[in-house]
Amino acid sequence: MKMRMTQVAQIEDLGPHMRRITLIGDDLKDFPPDQESAHFKAIFPQPGQTKPKLGIYAGFKKWMRSYTIRAFNQQTKVLTVDFAVNDHKGLGTDWANNAKVGDYLGIAGPGDTKYTNYDADWHLLVADLTGLPAAAAALEKLPKHAIGVAFLQVPTEQDKQLIHCPEGMKINWVINPDLTKNALLMAVENTSWLSGEPAIFIATESSQMKAIKKYVKNMPGYTNKQTYASGYWKA
User: Fold this and answer.
1) Rounded to 5 degrees, what angle do the CA atoms 209, 213, 219 make?
2) Domain 3-111 listed as CATH 2.40.30.10
3) Which CDD domains does the protein's record reference (predicted)?
4) Structural domain spans, the chain
């Protein structure tokens, strides 16, 4: 993965638990387009550094974490990343909580986009707070004729976001501050299953993702090749 240096251009709190940070820099001039929902590696400064150290060296992976490309403007070369904050501690969360305009962040990637079958018969997207940026990006890339349902879990009503998606996609916000409760599984179990083969996206806590995938595997039209399921974190 190619490594690049960026700087914080703007910070916006989308809600109590999601902070949007836009990044700029000359290194983004050759950043590939149409990679929304793909992952990349954020490279954070080490203690005492103002700029992160780029390159491969002993222990370099300790300062990297995976995040999602929420948006990239090919004309302005502005990269948008949403960080889940205020629900846990960690390298990336702590950096995002304390970020200021002008701060440096390294990036490596991007990797492959995980949701690519935009012309499926219908779509099912299931995500908790950590998977929300990828799910939102995928929803906004769907064609106008797309139909389906999304279940997006956030801790509070104030964490709901405006997502521009086709009229045929129904977004259901699942308000669940108790992360030990698999509210997303219950929501999926209670939804009406559409006809045809769905494209399925699941991005949640690892054990909850496995339970949701186990359920949908037994539903009509399920195919493994049209399913992306990933545990974004472990309880």
Assistant:
1) 150
2) yes
3) siderophore_interacting
4) 3-111, 122-233
Please report the beta strands in the chain, taking only residues with DSSP state E, as ranges in sequence order.
3-15, 18-24, 39-43, 64-68, 71-73, 78-84, 104-108, 122-127, 148-154, 169-175, 198-205, 227-233
Residues in the chain: 235
Domain over 122-233 is classified CATH 3.40.50.80: yes
CB 113 within 8 A of CB 38: yes
pLDDT tens-place string over residues 174-233: 999 998 899 999 999 999 999 999 999 999 999 999 999 999 999 999 999 999 999 999
Q: Using only the alpha carbons of the chain, give its radius of gyration.
A: 18
Cα distance between residue 79 and residue 133, in whole Å: 13
What DSSP letter does each residue of 57-86 carry, written as one string? -TTGGGGEEEEE--EEETTTTEEEEEEE-S
pLDDT digits (tens, 9 = 90+) for 141-154: 999 999 999 999 99
Beta partners for 71? 80
What is the rounded CA–CA span in Å between residue 132 and residue 204? 9
Q: Three-class SS of residue 148?
A: strand
Q: If you average pLDDT over residues 67-75, what whole number do you get?
A: 96
148-154 β-sheet, strand order: 169-175, 148-154, 122-127, 198-205, 227-233
